[in-house]
Design brief:
Blueprint lengths: L2 H9 L12 H26 L5 H14 L2 E8 H7 L15 E7 H16 L10 H25 L1
Antiparallel strand pairs: 1-2
Length: about 160
Amino acid sequence: MDREEVKERFLRGEIDVLICTDAAAEGLNLQTAGLLVIRDLLETRARSAGEGALFWPVLREVASLVEERGQVLAGGLPVGVLRAVAGELLFPCPVPAAGDRTAVPVPRVLARAAVDAASRLADGLKVRKSELRVDTVLARLQREIEARWRQIRQTSYSL
């Protein structure tokens, strides 16, 4: 079975666990894409929840949305970052030639991974779970995305 067939079967849910190795840059790119997706989904849900929204109820809403749908639409994703990672994603990611931001349909598998990443990131913050606000997690996500984006650019320059 070739790599593309494995990806397709994984996305269709025919494969539950996928253990793989690849270049460090590719792993970094996939992680960055997941962080971008969860940031967008959290921002969208937090706006409807109102200012000062608590993180965990909003994350539960996002997780529920992910489980209800085969894919979710992540909008407002930076085109420059997507261009850098598009070829290494587990799903087709058309990147527009013009504009700074775009919307991308994200398959459930990546959205689930993004929810898990946000949960782990929030667990690592030194704030009581009952007091953790979405804006606190979004600020931390933004710093993480910026750090990873710097690493991606450094990796691509050194190749």
